[in-house]
Amino acid sequence: MLAHASTSIPSIDASATPAQLRRFFYAAYCDTPTPLRWLSAVRPYVCPFDKLLQFVRDGADVLDVGCGAGSLLALLAAMKKIRRGVGCDVTAAPLESARAAAQRLGAENILTFELIRSVAEAPEGPFDTVAMVDVLHHVPPRDRSDVFAAAVRRVKPGGVFLYKDMTARPGGRRLAHNIDDYIFTREWVEQVPEGAVEAWAGDHRLTLVHDEYLPRLIYGHELRVFQRPER
Questions:
Q1: Which helix (H) or strand (E) holds 13?
Q2: CB 112 within 8 A of CB 123
Q3: Sequence-separated (6 or more) residues with CB below 8 Å from residue 194
Q4: Considering the domain boundaries, does residue 134 fall inside one?
Q5: Distance CA 138, CA 129 (A)
Q6: Residue 119: which of 65, 70, 53 has the closest Cα?
Q7: In this structure, how many other beta carbons lie within 10 angstroms of the beta carbon of residue 214?
Q8: How many domains does the chain have?
Q9: How far from 145 is each of 57, 136, 193, 196, 225, CA to CA, in Å?
């Protein structure tokens, strides 16, 4: 069941709390099927959007690789933080929800969403920011370095590669993530080993400018921000 078209979307800024983000996403995704609407609404309690936003400069062109329903780009567009956002994913259904949210936000001229078969088909750009959030743990380990390489090639000189994924550190938070993914995807995922993305980034001359471990509820997140040299 879909919400009425009269649903208003609350304004949002970088200081928004998870509860405020929940209300924002619940309104922005009111034209999508109820299960996805609820998932989008509760995601701010798990995903540290507040930490990601600060690494996207104002007026940036952004590519979100594996964007799903487009939550990150929807948030950036609503905050009027970016000039353009392109999301791409290998699954069609979430992209329909992303397009519906963009239209409801009045951002259909800023945000576009593309169905791809692999990261190699993503728009070339280059982009000021390329984001890859909770993607690599779904990629077979043998293919991860190639997927990473394809994504970072789309970062312009001086630009930023924004990486966030679930923690591989032993313990309950890692187990909670595995159980969560199994419930929703029927996939027992294998997290990206610690140090792997740093090694791949070094192969592509990217500099690590920020790294942080972020516990949220029962989950743990690894945030890495890399910058490409100006030349």
A1: none
A2: no
A3: 168, 169, 222
A4: yes
A5: 22
A6: 65
A7: 15
A8: 1
A9: 26, 9, 12, 9, 17
DSSP string covering 58-90, please? TTEEEEEET-TTTHHHHHHHHTT-EEEEEEEES
pTM: 0.92
Kindly state whether residue 156 falls inside one of the protein's structural domains: yes
Residue 142 falls inside a structural domain: yes
Spell out the per-residue pLDDT of the chain, length 231, in tens.
Answer: 344 455 788 888 888 899 999 999 999 999 888 888 888 899 999 899 989 999 999 999 999 999 999 999 999 999 999 999 999 999 999 999 999 999 999 999 999 999 999 999 999 989 999 999 999 999 999 999 999 999 999 999 999 999 999 999 888 998 888 888 877 778 888 899 999 999 999 999 999 999 999 999 999 999 999 999 997
Containing domain of residue 150, as a range?
48-227
- Token pair of 186, please? 């029927």
CATH number at residue 128: 3.40.50.150
